[in-house]
Amino acid sequence: MCGITGIFDTRGERSISHPVLHRMNESQTHRGPDEGSLHLEPGVGLGHRRLSIIDLATGQQPLFNEDGSVGIVFNGEIYNFQELVPELQALGHVFRTHSDTEVIVHAWEAWGEDCVQRLRGMFAFALWDRNRQTFFMARDRLGVKPMYYALLDDGLLLFGSELKSLLAYNGGRGGNGGLRRDIDPLAVEEYFALGYVAEPRTIFKQALKLSPGHMLSIRRGQPIPQPKPYWDVRFTLDNRISAEDACEELRARLTESVRLRMISEVPLGAFLSGGVDSSAVVATMAGLSSTPVHTCSIAFDDPAFNEAAFAQTVANRYRTDHFVETVKSDDFDLIDTLARLYDEPYADSSAIPTYRVCQLARKRVTVALSGDGGDESFGGYRRYRLHLMEERMRSALPAGLRQPLFGLLGRVYPKADWAPRMFRAKTTFEGMARSSVEAYFHSVSLLRGPMRAQLFSPAFKQALGGYDAQNVFDRHAAAAGTDDPLALIQYLDLKTYLVGDINTKVDRASMAHSLEVREPLMDHKLVEWLATLPNHLKIRGQEGKYLLKKAMEPKLPNEVLYRPKMGFAVPLARWFRGPLKARVRDAVLGERLAATGWFDQKYLRHLVDAHQAGTRDYSSPLWTLLMFEAFLHNVVEGPSGVPVRPANRVRAEAPA
User: Fold this and answer.
1) What per-residue confidence (pLDDT) applies to 420?
2) Mean pLDDT (whole number) for 226-246
3) 613 exposed, middle or buried (CB, 10 Å; 0-12, 13-18, 19+)?
């Protein structure tokens, strides 16, 4: 696990500045505190910060092949590298280390771009082949590890594990030849809809993310191509396996996935929240370990958010070395820290407890296994069941009748955030009037379309040029290869929410503490197999994750498997009426947001006043605005806090 960065001259062999590359590399020291190394040659600069996990003695990077013609910087873990070594040795390749990094180098020599098909793991890497004059980047299938890149006006390509390494180029102030900090209005629209900027876009126009399961191969002096996909998941739902056999096979596959992720030369443990996913991982680890598993969890001093007792139940059953710390429910001092950490506006408030549990885990271990990815593949989200109920209702009425009828009801029915859930019909009516993809996008949006229409100023809407963040879902839905209601939204979540929200959150929070997190439920072979299973093995009646729960019944108590899902929530509504009342008012109604010219000031005041008066719960949009303002302050203006000068003001320009 590391931080990588670098510079590639796509046009020639211009000299790469050592101080500039060093600055880019050091901006990610938190990702790799053990060592930092650079390689420079005409037209190429590679930087690496190392967190030593495997092959502590000889796994340094940048790493080269035998004759020094192929070099790599790599972030992540290749879990099947030991299987690939003898195959590559049989082809004549000589290994000088015992690291998974060297396997990628020789795999490139042997198989070229197809090398990524052979890799099982989480990874983002950049490789330079001098003989072929080729620069190659790739990102793992499910986007566990990040990769940012930007093509500058002068033909230099920058890349890095985090956006901050690109911003550090040329002093990080966006000067001549550096990364321009012009904000992409389309990214702002995506952020306020989803809470994150969706791949491949970033908040800055000139920078991009390499999408999961994609690769980019650039031949020096030739036109730069678009990234190419090398993997996708197909929900065939055609596996006729019985529930009993599926449980047995799932346990075997989970055991294999966990075993591969327990390879480490440093202390290893697991997060244990007390939920089904992390408990299943810990139970499987315990069956593979001859010593007690190190587990950690955080408790909250507010019982409404505290799952510590369930985590303790699992820890007691498997006699883990369990470590717990209590987090105060008013743990809101991380707002500016998170803004600097994520580099882009990011609105998932569970980043706060995630940051704390990573901080806690690092006191005991260097590697932690997590249960992330289970909800998407096993069908665990409550919104899946609600969507399927709506789909049954939608299919019962023709669109010509359904859309005008429920569209009218959605417009006239009052919004009732204060009411019991069964009486909040406005959202249901609005969803019934939409297509399946539109309805799902509507259900997961933080600020739904009508609210964004009120939030943005006329000038900003003009800059959007008609763009709507639903385009993200439409684009992925067109590639899904299925119209099955459950499979389609699972696919959408694997492409959007899992990558843009969950994986982003965990990567930044863990690497802020130099902690490697591994994800057995996101093993691509497991995900592919689960996508073949029929829906009744995922959701049965009102029970989500049916197969995982049945498979774990011999290993976990029912009070853990079948309790209501809690999640990693924080009490935003109370914060904004209490200890953060002044902070949110100052941020949302202050000069920084007003100076952009992007927001309707009257509507911003309504959001603050109505929430703080207790007449509406606007905690989610207010948090989204608060984190956007913190991003402008901490990233766009920079750590000095000097306001952006009018000549350099962030701009939302209309698309060409």
Assistant:
1) 44
2) 98
3) exposed
**In the beta sheet, which residues pair with residue 89?**
none
**Active site annotation includes 2:** yes
Q: Are 156 and 174 in contact (CB under 8 A)?
A: no
- CA dist 486 and 222 (Å) reads 43
Q: What secondary structure letter does DSSP report for 535? A: G
- Strands (E) located in 96-225: 121-129, 134-139, 148-151, 156-160, 207-209, 214-219
Ramachandran class of 419: left when φ > 0, alpha when ψ lies in -120 to 50, beta otherwise: beta
Tokens 């497991």 locate to 526
Residue 590 φ/ψ region, left for φ over 0, alpha for ψ in the -120 to 50 degree band, beta for the rest: beta
Query: Are 274 and 308 contacting, i.e. CB atoms less than 8 angstroms apart?
Result: yes
Kind plus residue range of the DSSP H or E element containing 356: helix 351-361
How many other C-beta atoms can be found within 10 angstroms of the C-beta atom of residue 470?
20
Give Cβ neighbours of residue 435 (< 8 Å, ≥ 6 apart): none
For 86-105, how does the pLDDT look when each residue is reduced to its tens digit (9 = 90+)? 999 999 999 999 999 999 99
Bigger pLDDT: 503 vs 309: 503
pLDDT bin (cut points 50, 70, 90) of residue 50 is confident
Burial of 153 (0-12, 13-18, 19+ CB in 10 A): exposed
Closest CA to 158 of 306, 10, 333: 10
DSSP E strands: which ranges in 44-178?
Answer: 44-50, 63-64, 70-78, 121-129, 134-139, 148-151, 156-160
CA distances from 638 to 90, 346, 485, 628, 642 (A): 52, 17, 44, 14, 7
Determine the Cα–Cα distance for residues 491 and 513; give it in Å rounded to an integer: 31
The model's pLDDT over 26-36, given as tens digits with 9 standing for 90+, comes to: 999 999 988 89
Q: In the predicted model, is pLDDT for residue 462 greater than 80?
A: yes
Whole-number percent of the chain with pLDDT over 90: 78
| Active-site residue (options: 2, 115, 296, 358) | 2
Question: Is 286's pLDDT higher than 60?
Answer: yes
- Cβ–Cβ < 8 Å for 545, 379: yes
| Backbone region of residue 541 per phi and psi (left: phi > 0; alpha: psi in -120 to 50; beta: other values) | left
pLDDT recorded at residue 307 = 80
What is the C-alpha to C-alpha distance for residues 647 and 173, in angstroms, rounded to an integer?
13
| Main-chain dihedrals φ then ψ at residue 85, nearest 5 degrees | -60, -55
Q: What is the DSSP letter of 343?
A: S
Token pair belonging to 330: 């008013």
Cα–Cα dist 143/140, whole Å: 5
If pLDDT is split at 50, 70 and 90, which confidence band does 170 have? confident
Dig out the tokens for 334 from the structure: 């991380």
Q: Which of 139, 539, 565 is nearest to 371 (CA)?
A: 565
Least confident of 67-71, 512-516, 566-570, 607-611: 566-570
370 and 506 in contact (C-beta within 8 Å)? yes
pLDDT score of 176 more than 70 = no
Query: What is the bridge-based pairing of β-strands 70-78 and 121-129?
Result: antiparallel
